[in-house]
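Sample intake sheet
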Amino acid sequence: MKAVIFAGGYGTRLSEETSIRPKPMVEVGGQPILWHIMKIYSVYGIDEFIICCGYKGYIIKEYFANYFLHRSDVTFNLRYNSMDIHQDEVDPWKVTLIDTGESTLTAGRLKQVQSYIGNETFCLTYGDGVSDIDIGETIKYHHKENCLVTLTAVQPPGRFGTFPLGPDDQRITSFREKPQGDGAWVNGGFFVVEPQVIDDYIKDDGANTMWETVLEAVAPDGQLAAYRHHGFWHPMDTIRDRNTLEKLWASGEAPWKAW
């Protein structure tokens, strides 16, 4: 099975980092968030990736062009212009990088890589979020539900401390620091998709259509299933998010690290 990753947006809410690199290349623990996402899929035997590049996509291409060299021990013989590889820690990945345009919206990016996907069920995600989700279980659930798209439903934690305060209260009687959210389920960004969706729901080239708009069309047809994930999930939308993920990684207890 293949995994398609959206990696072409501007990442404007993370401008402290994305002014010089695409958002999926912002690092956590010395590696791009894109690498962390790919490692999550690789744990479940998904080692073939199609990456939809756009804004500063050449940086992603350069990263993978040098990936083998950077993760290997080598001897360079400058006199004979030769190189010997002694040991490598390279992942068994096949990575296809497609320039889908800087301003193309996500459905259009998916449309452009359709020929690389083929006619098989595929995984799809954004290049800016990590989770301890069981990818294998999402795929099983998708096939059991026999639908066109399965999304991962998550409940994000609250960002601020909460407390009850009546109109006449002067004292706070209880306080909860960053409690679980209000119970609403949101799109966690890890999808399992049937290729039929691209032909049936993305009209023309889809350049001006968001993937979420496609989901809005699929849902009323009863073809959108939700896999409820109760574990860890965290996006990287802001510098605060990046710092949170960095702190988790540095602690040695990053919940998404299953490799």
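Comment: The longest strand covers residues 82-88. The two ends are 19 Å apart (CA to CA).
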